[in-house]
Amino acid sequence: MTSESGCEEQALKPASAFSEADRDAVYRAIETRRDVRDQFLPHALPDELVARLLAAAHAAPSVGFMQPWNFLLIRDQAVRDAAWEAFRRANDEAAEMFAGDQQTLYRNLKLEGIRKAPLSICVTCDPDRAGPVVLGRTHNPKMDLYSTVCAVQNLWLAARVEGVGVGWVSIFHEADIKALLGIPERVQIVAWLCLGYVDQLYREPELAVKGWRQRLSLEDLVFIERWGRPASLIAEAEDRVSPAS
Amino acid sequence: MTSESGCEEQALKPASAFSEADRDAVYRAIETRRDVRDQFLPHALPDELVARLLAAAHAAPSVGFMQPWNFLLIRDQAVRDAAWEAFRRANDEAAEMFAGDQQTLYRNLKLEGIRKAPLSICVTCDPDRAGPVVLGRTHNPKMDLYSTVCAVQNLWLAARVEGVGVGWVSIFHEADIKALLGIPERVQIVAWLCLGYVDQLYREPELAVKGWRQRLSLEDLVFIERWGRPASLIAEAEDRVSPAS
Fold first, then answer.
1. In whole angstroms, what is the distance from residue B89 CA to residue B175 CA?
2. Where are the domains of chain A?
3. Which of A13, A50, B65, B167 has a beta carbon 3.0–4.6 Å from A213's, enabling a disulfide?
4. What does DSSP assign to residue A230?
5. ipTM over 0.90
């Protein structure tokens, strides 16, 4: 019992809040991160930088410590051209689903940077990574996919601090990209990410700037104790929080 | 055309890499974030702090700028007790799915802090938030769930810098928690998060410390151009990256 407690103590280490400067840095990464479609600069990302981004992704939480992700790096222009063709076909189908002015606006939006960004990363989830029964996935079969999304978000924030923009492309038939990259049947594609250096980003999400959809009030999305019960204390707290610089 | 370009210029702003100190802060948040089950301290989280965490979540990327998330704050002990009962029932079922020594180890793990942590946040996804056809969800119906997970990961990293631990509970029947909180049929629960101040965290993920499952080699999870093609350049780059302090 004593030795177990000793191990436990060694495994735990002090963890306090960050300094104000370090805290601000993390909030700034979160607030200024954007989904980039067109601001990519052409020069290649160094291997060391890509390794840091992947290490950040690999540090994500995962259900049952399953680490279900894989990362396929795609630099080859021919492969990116083929992926873009898959996007284009799906995007034509997508445009047809919108009516009237909305379809016109949709067709005028640039929704991907597959050919412009020098690097794409296809992020996948292997449900068989830790056997058929996974701690924490027993009652929610999507938990492995959610873990993989956490890896994507870690990578995205790390990219922001490196001066690298990321765009998440979701408009394609999964079968097309799986065939292109030789991805096994059991494995699911979670994200196709486009990456490249950027020297400017939108102040607000591009879809808001372009008039597609505006930011919702956070206050309306927060409830207390039960669905639909307004959380006025949050609104009051927000008034007291100094605005982000 | 000129005025449009002008608007575009105003909407874009310079965005460079962060300073080395700020970059290190973000990587440190990513690397030291843990899934907390037992280290929660009892004192309440101030409203201002909770508002900052929710604002970080609300800054997540979302498909079609849909912002499909809601956040239900649960402080009431009776509600948390009821949620814990739902966990306990599901966890007994889960334990039975593991055999022999693995079941023994499973039963010895503490997998949640619902009653110990002073605040729970139930994070949900409303698929109807932006109408039936959503930009970017046309070919992947899970994109709204993925957006909601990005919000969870933002909140988790923000919590780390605030000295707040977060634990993601996934072992319950969704119907039990939906009934408890009055969540509408159409809305999906993505995460039940337990939050509280912490003054220590595990050096490595708790499931590794407790011998459940170890960290995989990142090198084995990265491919180049095609599934299964090793990315030796990443291994080489990793050797050159200085280890995190």
1. 13
2. 35-214
3. B65
4. B
5. yes
**In the predicted model, what is the mean pLDDT of chain A?**
93
A85 touches chain B (CB under 8 A): no
| A95 at B interface, C-beta within 8 A | no
What residue in A sits closest to B90 (Cα-Cα)? A139
Q: What is the pLDDT of residues B92-142, one digit of tens each?
A: 999 999 999 999 999 999 999 999 999 999 999 999 999 999 999 999 999
Fold of A35-214: NADH Oxidase (3.40.109)
Q: Measured between alpha carbons, how far apart are the two ends of chain B, in Å?
A: 51
* A131 at B interface, C-beta within 8 A: no
What span, in angstroms and rounded, lies between the C-alpha atoms of B199 and B216? 28
Residues facing residue A123 across a β-bridge:
A71, A191
- Read off φ and ψ for residue B165, nearest 5 degrees: -90, 150
CA-to-CA separations, A229 to A133, A215, B217, in angstroms, rounded:
37, 21, 46
Lowest mean pLDDT among A200-209, A230-239, B224-233: A230-239
Strands B69-74 and B119-125 turn out to be antiparallel
Collect all residues of chain A within an 8 Å Cβ-Cβ radius of residue B145.
142, 145-146
Amino acid at position B191, single letter: A
The Cα A157–Cα A31 span in angstroms is 10
**Do B65 and A224 lie within an 8 Å CB cutoff?**
no
Q: With CA atoms as reference, report the closest residue to A134 among A121, A124, A145, A123.
A: A145
Residue given tokens 């097309």 in the structure block: A176
Instruction: Give the start-end residues of each E strand in B130-221.
Output: 164-169, 188-197, 200-202
**What are the φ and ψ backbone dihedral angles of A80, each rounded to 5 degrees?**
-65, -35
Q: How do beta strands B119-125 and B12-14 pair? A: unpaired
| Residue B6 burial (C-beta neighbours within 10 Å; 0-12, 13-18, 19+) | exposed
